[in-house]
Specification:
Helix content: over 70%
Structural class: mainly alpha
Number of helices: 16
Shape: globular
Strand content: under 5%
Radius of gyration: 22 Å
Length: 461
């Protein structure tokens, strides 16, 4: 099996190999983004455009717990993979037990703390009088599902680490499909008629089902995870420290995404010329549309990462150069095409989220989405570099490349432009941050590729 894998990564045509690995990763990511999109559409149809803002207000807490699951998942899968490779079943068992138990405790802490301090947290996250009740109703229910949600993310990483990517993909698809089926039944009057609360219940059930599926698969005889429920409470602090050391960049990067949403929500509350709740809903729609439309690009990079890692380790620099160059071209074409799509059809996208065809919501949303989308093409090389550095084992470089666009650049520019020109400054900041980060990344990309060409000449491979 290892020989077949080595031959595939080291000998197969890199273009075909990239597509082969990118397709399942892309499908999993699309389905994961799809439930967020459909959830938002059903909430808009069932409770109106203002209710969409409840998702944007509640989302930072979900992102923090997602970051916990992803950080522990990335860290534990790294430790697990190395132990798996050397046949160390004792460490394999300890790392899985430690990851699951610590994930459970940390997610429970976030859930309980949020429930206790729910009202001040909602104010901090930018809730306004118009969407406050919706946000509170949604978040109170979602808190119930944060523990299985986070655990499923960690198990998803560990399942891929043991060599069962299809199980990991199926878990995400199961969650998305259940959520999509339950949403209309729980939200609309022909079903339970629960409105925003119904969407939260549907999501909680879907995430719990996702966890149950992947946990059952992890407990099966076919799994190499060696989950021992009798000793699940035993935590190896030494292993946990190693897990944290590897996973902390992933946790920080994703949790800072929550901070960005909080900042934008509060800037909207300060500078919106009308009811800020409608603009927070617009931002919520844009967030979900971006996640869905750009996911195929990020799926491509997920397929690129293992190819880069293998060929970098093997010092096959010609294959390394060719696959990075090919992925970059595909990604640039896709991201630029997405911008064109948004520029042409932005109004139609927002009409989907407006059952009453509110002209203000559609016009303002389309204008904002167009401004945000102008920078999509520029992020190509930043996204490529982030994945390449991760694969090459340069986590600090990958960390700063990932942060530059949505944190280091965005927040100070957003404060300045919103102060100068109001609400439009918030949307234009996305374009400026993407453009600046993209141009800087292209310069770095150029020199990295030039260095690879030098190594090709030196090594001849």
């Amino acid at each position: 099996m290892n020989t077949e894998r080595s031959e595939m990564f080291g000998s197969m045509n890199v273009k075909k190999l990239l597509i082969k690995l990118a397709v399942p990763a892309t499908l999993a990511m699309i389905f994961n983004a799809l439930y967020n999109l459909v959830d938002t559409i059903f909430i808009a149809w069932g409770a109106g455009e203002i209710a969409i803002g409840a998702l944007s207000i509640a989302y930072p807490i979900q992102m923090i717990v997602l970051a916990l699951g992803a950080g522990i998942g990335v860290g534990s899968s790294s430790v697990f993979s190395r132990a798996y490779g050397r046949g160390d079943e004792k460490t394999m068992r300890r790392v899985v037990n430690t990851a699951l138990m610590m994930n459970f405790l940390l997610a429970a802490f976030v859930s309980i703390a949020t429930f206790i301090f729910l009202d001040p947290i909602l104010n901090l996250f930018g809730a306004s009088p118009s969407n406050y009740a919706y946000a509170k109703s949604y978040l109170q229910i979602i808190l119930i599902a944060l523990i299985p949600f986070s655990l499923s993310i960690t198990l998803n990483n560990l399942t891929r680490a043991e060599g069962r990517p299809k199980i990991a993909m199926k878990a995400l698809i199961i969650g998305a499909v259940i959520n999509i089926i339950l949403d209309p039944l729980f939200i609309f009057d022909f079903g339970l008629g629960l409105g925003v609360a119904g969407a939260a219940y549907a999501t909680a059930i879907a995430k719990s089902a996702q966890f149950v599926y992947i946990m059952v698969k992890g407990l099966s005889k076919d799994s190499s995870l060696i989950i021992d429920l009798k000793t699940i409470y035993k935590v190896d602090l030494k292993i946990f420290k190693e897990v944290v050391a590897v996973g902390i960049p992933t946790f920080v990067r994703q949790s800072l995404g929550a901070l960005l949403i909080i900042v934008v929500n509060n800037l909207i509350n300060k500078y919106a010329p009308a009811d800020p709740a409608i603009y927070i809903s617009i931002y919520g729609v844009i967030n979900r549309l971006i996640r869905f439309t750009l996911m195929p690009g990020f799926g491509l990079v997920q397929g690129l990462v293992p190819i880069v890692g293998f060929n970098f380790g093997a010092q096959f620099f010609k294959r390394l150069h060719d696959v990075i160059a090919y992925a970059s071209k595909l990604l640039l074409i896709y991201f630029a095409s997405t911008t064109v799509l948004v520029l042409l059809f932005a109004e139609y996208f927002f009409m989907i989220f407006s059952p009453e065809s509110d002209p203000f919501f559609i016009a303002e949303g389309a204008k904002a989405f167009r401004m945000v989308s102008l920078g999509f093409g520029f992020i190509t090389f930043q996204v490529i570099l982030s994945g390449v550095y991760q694969a090459m084992g340069y986590p600090i470089r990958a960390f700063f490349v990932a942060l530059s666009r949505r944190f280091i650049l965005y927040i100070p520019i957003a404060f300045l432009l919103s102060w100068l020109i109001g609400i439009d400054g918030i949307w234009l900041t996305f374009f400026l941050a993407d453009t600046i980060a993209g141009l800087l990344s292209f310069v770095v990309y150029y020199f990295e590729m030039k260095e690879l060409k030098t190594k090709i000449v030196e090594k001849g491979v």
